[in-house]
């Protein structure tokens, strides 16, 4: 038997002066990018790192706007060369410290709360992370008739013009900052920008900053009514009563109720930052809203979930030095409006008390004045209560059934890391929804058991376009699916960041995709709206010889691969089950191709579902016949 200390002594011998490594600021960011921007990604997901880089630069421009300097921001995204350019017309980075401001950690004006009272980027890391994670980064500041330009590559300074005189072209403002960057493909891989994701961020900046003129790729974005515009542009269905708008001090909210929504839904922001995971400000509003409404109707017995179900709310609060739960700032952790003093005391109001007091004054007063709204709201609450009680028994039985099934659930092969945890890799958590045992078997054998789960469907799921909640709870397969996701009571407990539909690229596979999307859009539209649902793209062809193998996702890729491969052997994959686990591993790793399911703000979800998945068989048949394309299949010889 080995001596008990032998291993540790050998390890100690290897631990010496050479083991101590110093990383420069930019090197550390490049080595540990997840600490600064969450995850890398290829641009398929709205929270991939390339969009965080854009956000970090825009945040600085917005901080200038909210401080009263510069009312315009210009941005271009070149989708071909993947270069992003952002120009603000604020005060401009102080020229003497410009290089340090974009390349040295713990350097920046946002540590001085007198300069930036209610900023998003209080840690002063944002632009430095953009610099470090870009293959090319250029910054130019304009101040007092002078300018300075610096260029970097992989975070290393390559040129510096020094401070020189600047004569602006006629009609252009003389101050501000211009930042250009190209995210480094060595880190982000073969990434691409999705225009809808960028536009959504631009609109949110405009909604939160009324009076800001934002020009993105020469298109003007502007919001006159702020949060009211946000709700009107994004709300599905007609509001049950006119939008209620409350604004006092650093708090603003606009909200109403709609039918057909499983829970309450929020567009929440802190200092202009979209807190997609909510936080203490959202919890304060949810609790305060239910309390004020119950007190107004003098109905203590109302359940909070009945008061809130169907509520759609845009919420914004501005606080000093906010504390977020991650560098990506998607969830607020602050409990007070201002930070603790250096002596540990804190006389700043509790966030919860602050929000409740505002709602007590404004919402209660509004409901007393607008009796029609009060009646419509009461009717909605009572209908919510009736629906909840009607399906309570079914829901209880369904939960008990799913709980028993989950103990030995052959449909779900779970992973260890989930989205609703605090694990550093939580954003990678993914569930693949597959058809049949063969496809799920290949994915199960090749998946990353830490972050990737597999849910296997048996045949085609129920068409829920005309179903009620009771039918969904009674359907074993759909009941097991939404329990696996844990979204029955809202998005707070969602277990997987990425919900990936992995079906064959044939007629049956397409039908299953539509049935699953119908289910999500009917009962959990927020899952799609928040960008969690994707379609997995798997190769249709394999072109190979003894020297190399190429997987092709389209006919064009197949033809290109054949041209580049002498004496090729060509295989057509008819289904996912035909792809071996060893091959499949390369299709669901960090380079996997995902097509996000996107909802445009003018998309008529319910109308589209009724047309394509409803009972209008004759209308649909006529549409298909008018738009049918017949293509001859090309014979592929091995």
UniProtKB/TrEMBL annotation:
Catalytic activity: ATP-dependent breakage, passage and rejoining of double-stranded DNA
Keywords of the record: ATP-binding, DNA-binding, Isomerase, Magnesium, Metal-binding, Nucleotide-binding, Topoisomerase
The organism's place on the tree of life at top rank: Bacteria
GO biological process, one term: DNA topological change
SUPFAM superfamilies with a match to the protein in the record: ATPase domain of HSP90 chaperone/DNA topoisomerase II/histidine kinase (SSF55874), Ribosomal protein S5 domain 2-like (SSF54211), Type II DNA topoisomerase (SSF56719)
EC number in record: 5.6.2.2
Molecular function GO labels: ATP binding; DNA binding; DNA topoisomerase type II (double strand cut, ATP-hydrolyzing) activity; metal ion binding
Residue ranges of domain Toprim in the record: 429-539
Alphabetical list of Pfam families matching this protein: DNA_gyraseB, HATPase_c, Toprim
Keyword 4Fe-4S: no
SMART domains assigned: HATPase_c (SM00387), TOP2c (SM00433)
Cofactor(s) demanded: Mg(2+)
Quaternary context: Heterotetramer composed of ParC and ParE.
Protein's recorded name: DNA topoisomerase (ATP-hydrolyzing)
Higher taxonomy: Bacteria, environmental samples
């Amino acid at each position: 038997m080995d001596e008990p200390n032998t291993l540790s002594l050998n390890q100690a011998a290897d631990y010496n002066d050479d083991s101590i490594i110093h990383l420069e600021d930019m090197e550390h960011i490049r080595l540990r990018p997840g600490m600064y921007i969450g995850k890398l990604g290829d641009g398929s997901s709205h929270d991939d790192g390339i969009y965080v880089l854009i956000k970090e630069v825009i945040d600085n421009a917005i901080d200038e706007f909210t401080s009263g300097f510069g009312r315009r921001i210009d941005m271009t995204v070149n989708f071909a060369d993947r270069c992003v350019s952002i120009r603000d017309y604020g005060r401009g980075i102080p020229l003497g410290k410009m290089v340090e401001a974009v390349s040295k950690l713990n350097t920046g004006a946002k540590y001085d709360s007198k300069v930036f009272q209610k900023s998003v980027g209080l840690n002063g890391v944002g632009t430095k992370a953009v610099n470090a994670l870009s293959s090319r980064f250029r910054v130019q500041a304009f101040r007092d008739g002078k300018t300075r330009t610096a260029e970097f590559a992989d975070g290393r300074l390559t040129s510096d013009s020094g401070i020189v005189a600047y004569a602006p072209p006629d009609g252009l403002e003389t101050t501000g900052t211009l930042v250009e960057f190209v995210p480094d493909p060595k880190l982000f891989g073969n990434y691409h920008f999705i225009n809808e994701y960028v536009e959504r961020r631009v609109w949110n900046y405009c909604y939160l900053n009324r009076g800001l003129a934002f020009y993105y790729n020469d298109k003007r974005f502007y919001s006159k009514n702020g949060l009211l515009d946000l709700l009107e542009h994004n709300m599905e269905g007609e509001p049950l009563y006119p939008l209620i708008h409350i604004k006092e001090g650093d708090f603003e909210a606009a909200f109403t109720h709609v039918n057909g929504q499983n829970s309450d839904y929020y567009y929440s922001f802190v200092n202009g930052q979209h807190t997609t995971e909510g936080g203490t400000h959202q919890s304060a509003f949810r609790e305060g809203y239910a309390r004020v409404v119950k007190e107004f109707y003098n109905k203590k017995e109302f359940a909070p979930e009945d008061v809130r179900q169907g509520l759609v709310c845009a919420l914004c609060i501005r606080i000093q030095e906010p504390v977020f739960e991650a560098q990506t700032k998607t969830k607020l952790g602050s409990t007070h409006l201002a930070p603790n003093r250096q002596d540990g005391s804190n006389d700043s109001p509790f966030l919860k008390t602050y929000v409740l007091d505002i709602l007590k004054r404004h919402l209660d007063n509004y409901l007393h004045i607008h009796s029609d709204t009060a009646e419509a709201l009461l009717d909605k609450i009572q209908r919510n209560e009736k629906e909840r009680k009607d399906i309570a028994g079914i829901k209880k039985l369904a939960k008990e059934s799913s709980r028993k099934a989950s103990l030995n659930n052959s449909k779900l092969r779970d992973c260890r890391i989930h989205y609703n945890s605090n694990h550093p890799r939580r954003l990678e958590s993914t569930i693949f929804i597959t058809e049949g045992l063969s496809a799920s078997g290949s994915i199960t054998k090749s998946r990353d058991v830490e972050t990737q789960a597999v849910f296997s469907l048996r045949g085609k799921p129920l068409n829920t376009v005309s179903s009620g909640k009771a039918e969904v709870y009674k359907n074993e397969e759909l009941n097991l699916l939404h329990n696996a996701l844990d979204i029955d009571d809202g998005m707070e407990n969602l277990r997987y960041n990425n919900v990936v539909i992995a079906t064959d690229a044939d007629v049956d596979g397409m039908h299953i995709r539509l049935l699953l999307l119908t289910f999500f859009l009917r009962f959990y539209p927020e899952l799609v709206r928040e960008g969690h649902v994707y379609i997995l793209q798997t190769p249709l062809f394999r072109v190979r010889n003894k020297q190399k193998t190429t997987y092709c996702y389209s006919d064009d890729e197949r033809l290109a691969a054949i041209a580049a491969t002498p004496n090729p052997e060509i295989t057509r994959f008819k289904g996912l089950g035909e792809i071996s686990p060893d091959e499949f591993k390369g299709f669901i790793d960090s380079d996997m191709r995902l097509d996000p399911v996107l909802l445009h703000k003018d998309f008529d979800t319910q109308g589209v579902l009724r047309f394509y998945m409803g009972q209008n068989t004759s209308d649909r048949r006529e549409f298909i016949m008018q738009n049918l394309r017949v293509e001859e299949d090309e014979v592929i010889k091995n």
